[in-house]
Amino acid sequence: MKEILYLRHGLQKGFLIPDQSPKESEMKTMADYFSKLETYPELEVSVIRATKINKVLKGVIKLPTIPRDDEFHFKQRSTNLLIQWEWNRKTDLATPADKSEAASNGVVKIEKSATSATTSTEKNGQSGDTGATNDVEQAAVGT
Questions:
Q1: Global pTM value
Q2: Distance, CA of 78 to CA of 111 (rounded, Å)
Q3: Taking a C-beta distance cutoff of 8 angstroms, is the pair 78, 62 a contact?
Q4: Residue ranges of the domains in the chain?
Q5: 41, 73, 98, 113: which has the fewest C-beta neighbours closer than 10 Å?
Q6: Confidence grade of residue 84 (pLDDT, cut at 50, 70, 90)
């Protein structure tokens, strides 16, 4: 875990300094950090969360431009690492509304939405969709 934390810190300093673009001179070092991260094909979720390495990788993906990305493929490597670690990309890269829904036990929340939609439809005597069905359908597709 200490090495992952060290790598996260190095990547954060190289890519995600506020009000600065990544420096071309540091990209070789950043590529070496990525190579070391890629030696952890089955990184545990607890380590990912504790070190917050996933947040740095997401930040790299969101950068508008990265020097020498055509040579080192930082954005693609970040995406590959997140997938390789079986990190739920929908949760990580989703909109804030999706994140709050996925942060709790999605199954319970979806079941409650479906139940409340059925109840409100039955009370009103209407047939129609209040939107909860779409949540259930999207969750089924996402699983």
A1: 0.60
A2: 34
A3: no
A4: 2-93, 96-142
A5: 41
A6: confident
